[in-house]
């Protein structure tokens, strides 16, 4: 198997084990067995459990950040941007092909590990800053004010999406996004665009 394909296979197996058992209870033996390889093969790709976990965390953090920045870039309509960012968070926590992977970022049992904490803080900051760029550009608010609003918007999206999934999807994803979009749009729309003509 080509090295890149093997790495992808190992990451998929590791994700299943880490999501099911958490970092501390996961064993490299279990990951190797899940992947159908020997432990030496696993160690050829990842020198230890932490490095494997960090590689997974990087993959998931990049996926979330890309989804949010893509949603912002797709349109210049701010209500549609809110819809897109909310959808990005809801889809991130509810991906059948990445079942539970969001827990690696938002519910890790390794939050005290500096390398993990840095990565979680980095993806949180990256998504917030992407939203803050739009808020500052459109409203003329100073950077700190834009960051505060962006933190509220992305925080609401993340927490609500996780609650929705943990509550077994009490409404459809589309309805959940629509409800939150209405709430958040009513708040952010009170900050007028710097160019009223737009």
Instruction: Find the count of extended strands (DSSP E, 2+ residues).
Output: 0
**Class of the largest domain, according to the CATH hierarchy?**
Mainly Alpha
Q: Could you state the CATH homologous superfamily of the largest domain?
A: Tetracycline Repressor, domain 2
Ends distance: 54 Å
Q: Uncertain segments of ≥5 residues (pLDDT<50)?
A: none
Q: Number of folding domains?
A: 2
What share of residues is helical?
Answer: over 70%
Structural class estimated from helices and strands? mainly alpha
- Tell me what the CATH architecture of the largest domain is: Orthogonal Bundle
Order of helices and strands: HHHHHHHHH
Secondary structure elements and pairings:
Elements: H1 3-25, H2 28-35, H3 39-45, H4 49-73, H5 78-93, H6 103-106, H7 114-139, H8 143-166, H9 173-188
Helix pairs in contact: 1-2, 1-4, 4-5, 4-7, 5-8, 5-9, 7-8, 8-9
What's the gist of this structure?
This protein is mainly alpha-helical and 198 residues long. Helices cover 75% and strands 0% of the residues.
